[in-house]
Backbone:
């Protein structure tokens, strides 16, 4: 099950990633509430303050929260790059990311400059602490895999995204909105979504899919060339933005790269060496198919509002995949930490979180996803239904995560020998 290059003995305390995984669904619930509270035409208008607040609640409170939590587990295990004083590091990154997200959202909902100043301070502390540490550790790794290389690219794009976000926030704060402001906004979005989030997901899946699903490895050519090609394409957007080059060529190249990834990901999952039933596969497949549809939508459908593209990419691709990944990571961490402490009578990885509950969560989440898409063609009632289902799905997501963690806590309170005798 475990590939070469894994360093399980260097894993951080289990509380490190768990705090991030428990916080993300709470912000997701608040996103659903925002969809219900504000008029659909306001919340889906990408230029409205409410939409900016909600988008950043997703990118900061959900996306970054899950990624930062997972990376603090994956850097030591997949890259052999342990973080010193892991609990303190996690506390700083998590607390300031949580506060920064809240302050940022409040700024755009209530238009108070004090909130933006607080958000800038908190988010800079969180992001720069994380990325400076990540760059320092990752570039010292001796055993370099394709996943480690992608982690390096992720860290670089993360720093660039942070610095651009800081520039844009200061521009808002000072009222210094220049003619190039919206070009920088587009670069910030591109770096954040395609570089910070998608690039890391691609790189990690090279190792996670074969490891967790006993599936085919991605071709070496894809592992070695695809991430760096996406990274170079992201950076080349500066030329497209400021030199008035044909942006459609850029979109075609991006679509080709992401469809290549989705094709090989689905090929790996559909040709598993041990094709047992696993509900988390549903999240991965929905994610990868949504990615293909999103790219086709981006290429061939006029992006008057970009609403459908946003839902396909954010809720269809990114969030679906991250939920499926968390449902694998939490049981694996529970099993690993218990076995490493010498416990014998413990649940298997598939028993840590009840599969029936995961299925219920999946069905509710898929219904919310479908209704969000239907709103793009019909009236506001569909977004209200979608938001309600989205809230319910994330409440269940949170409950499932808590149940898995409680199962770990209840076993770890006993003496290892006691569980052996009872078995």
Residues:
């Amino acid at each position: 099950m475990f590939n070469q290059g894994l360093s399980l003995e260097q894993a951080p305390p289990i509380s490190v990633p768990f705090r991030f995984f428990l916080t993300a669904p709470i912000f997701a619930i608040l996103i659903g509430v925002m969809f219900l509270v504000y008029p659909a035409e306001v919340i889906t208008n990408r230029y409205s303050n409410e939409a900016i607040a909600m988008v950043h609640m997703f990118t900061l409170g959900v996306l970054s929260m899950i990624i930062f939590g997972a990376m603090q587990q994956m850097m030591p295990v997949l890259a052999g790059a342990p973080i010193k004083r892991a609990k303190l590091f996690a506390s700083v990154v998590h607390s300031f990311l949580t506060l920064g997200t809240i302050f940022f959202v409040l700024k755009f909902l209530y238009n108070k400059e004090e909130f933006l100043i607080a958000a800038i301070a908190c988010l800079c502390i969180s992001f720069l602490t994380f990325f400076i540490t990540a760059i320092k550790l990752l570039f010292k790794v001796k055993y370099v895999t394709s996943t480690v290389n992608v982690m390096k690219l992720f860290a670089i794009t993360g720093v660039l995204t942070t610095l651009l976000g800081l520039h844009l926030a200061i521009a808002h704060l000072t009222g210094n909105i220049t003619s190039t402001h919206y070009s920088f906004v587009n670069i910030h979005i591109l770096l954040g979504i395609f570089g910070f989030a998608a690039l890391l997901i691609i790189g990690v899946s090279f190792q996670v899919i074969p490891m967790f699903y006993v599936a085919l490895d991605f071709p070496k050519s894809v592992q070695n060339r695809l991430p760096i090609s996406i990274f170079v394409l992201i950076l080349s957007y500066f030329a497209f933005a400021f030199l008035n080059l044909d942006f459609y060529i850029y979109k075609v190249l991006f679509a080709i790269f992401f469809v290549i990834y989705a094709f090989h990901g689905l090929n790996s999952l559909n040709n598993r060496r041990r094709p047992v039933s696993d509900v988390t596969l549903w999240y991965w497949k929905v994610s990868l198919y949504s990615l293909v549809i999103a790219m086709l939508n981006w290429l061939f459908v006029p992006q008057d509002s970009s609403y459908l593209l946003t839902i396909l990419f954010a809720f269809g691709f990114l969030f679906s995949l991250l939920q499926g990944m968390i449902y694998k990571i939490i049981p694996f961490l529970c099993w690993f930490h218990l076995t490493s402490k010498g416990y014998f009578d413990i649940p298997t990885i598939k028993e840590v979180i009840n599969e029936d509950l995961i299925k219920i969560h999946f069905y509710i989440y898929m219904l919310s996803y479908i209704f969000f898409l239907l709103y793009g063609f019909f009236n506001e009632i569909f977004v209200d239904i979608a938001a309600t289902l989205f809230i319910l799905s994330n409440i269940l997501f949170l409950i499932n995560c808590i149940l898995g963690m409680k199962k770990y806590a209840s076993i770890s309170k006993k003496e290892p020998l006691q569980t052996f005798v009872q078995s």
